[in-house]
Amino acid sequence: MTVFMILCRVFRRERFALTESSQPSRKLESTMAIVPWKQVGEDVTLAGKFGKKLIVKQFLNPKSGKIQDYVQFAQRDWSVCLAITSDGQVLVVSEFKQGRNAVDDELPAGTAEFGESPEEVMRRELRDETGYVPELMVYLGFGWISTRSSPTRFHCFLATGCKKVGPAKLDENEDIETRLVSLEQWLEMVMNGSISEPSAVTTTIRALSHLGLKIAR
Amino acid sequence: MTVFMILCRVFRRERFALTESSQPSRKLESTMAIVPWKQVGEDVTLAGKFGKKLIVKQFLNPKSGKIQDYVQFAQRDWSVCLAITSDGQVLVVSEFKQGRNAVDDELPAGTAEFGESPEEVMRRELRDETGYVPELMVYLGFGWISTRSSPTRFHCFLATGCKKVGPAKLDENEDIETRLVSLEQWLEMVMNGSISEPSAVTTTIRALSHLGLKIAR
């Protein structure tokens, strides 16, 4: 993580704290504050293939005092970016997605190879999938594919000033088409439910304030 | 925030005009349109526990002509809602999430029991987790936890005019706290990366137009 990325995160935290303290939320019931549960023992792998695993974790529920089993799905973290060209167009990637079982419009994204940082993954995937390189990348933090059922995270980036430097470099297993849509059109696709991949949706909404955009009446 | 970042933000604000962008999207390369791949044979289950499974699906890649294996994680679909009270506050649920391994702020949500429709799931979970019932529910479509690696969907709802009808009904395994935050504050939490659960983020952005909100400069 670069100093620039750290500064961005600190800045966001401070802004959030100001908003929060100006309007305190109120609890509905006089419950105890929720405390983090503790994992008991090690992960047990039920099955694994191609780096994807089904695991069982045991946690001590502090409310009941009982140990409960949770089954989770683990794979390598990935990176995803809202990439905008120097003339303000969004790079939208279409490919067949085997989970959804349909051709899907989404953002450039890819999985970490050994030893790569999230930003290195993103720069490599953006270049290979689309042929573009960014002028500036901003880290937007990470999310989980399922906060209940997976320890796997996706790292969100905003890439601006993207310029084409050559053709896409796809391997024979990749069947991808990139097209340019206006930022307005992409935001409409996210808002109206046309975009199914939650990492693309999350990345887009986190990029808004960095693009000088806000949600308004 | 550095001077560099301020300059970047000012610069970007001028570059991303939302108004000048109603042009049609354009393809970058003269590729064939992406066609849906076909699954070959049946799912093979590698392991399963508590309704969660690791499965292998084989697909024929029409570009390479080869059959490729995809490992996926399957569980029951779930429902999630942005629930707003009759005085305009969002019901935010905090609980320990075993995937993220932390206490998480998110929206009321729950998994389907046998024979329930997505809306029935949502009404039951909203009532049980928070003690509230809605005046109106709007279905916002579904998303996938991972369009690549899971056939599991989450169904998104907007629930408005919510009124408290009694205490929450939690079973002994549930350790949940509900609080009310202003809609403005919730949107800020989603935009600034404080919300990690992608189904909550997706539901929020799909609800915007139904709430008379838009993304603007």
Automatic annotation (TrEMBL), chains A, B:
Q: Set out the biological process GO terms recorded for this chain's protein.
A: nucleoside phosphate metabolic process; ribose phosphate metabolic process
Concerning PROSITE patterns, the annotation shows: NUDIX
Question: Which GO terms of the molecular function aspect are on file?
Answer: hydrolase activity
- Superkingdom of the source species: Bacteria
Ranges for domain Nudix hydrolase: 74-203
Mention any Pfam family matching this sequence. Answer: NUDIX
Annotated organism of origin: Candidatus Magasanikbacteria bacterium RIFOXYD1_FULL_40_23
Query: What cofactor is this protein dependent on?
Result: Mg(2+)
Q: What is this protein called?
A: Nudix hydrolase domain-containing protein
Which controlled-vocabulary keywords does the entry list? Hydrolase
What InterPro entries does the entry give?
A: NUDIX_hydrolase-like_dom_sf, NUDIX_hydrolase_dom
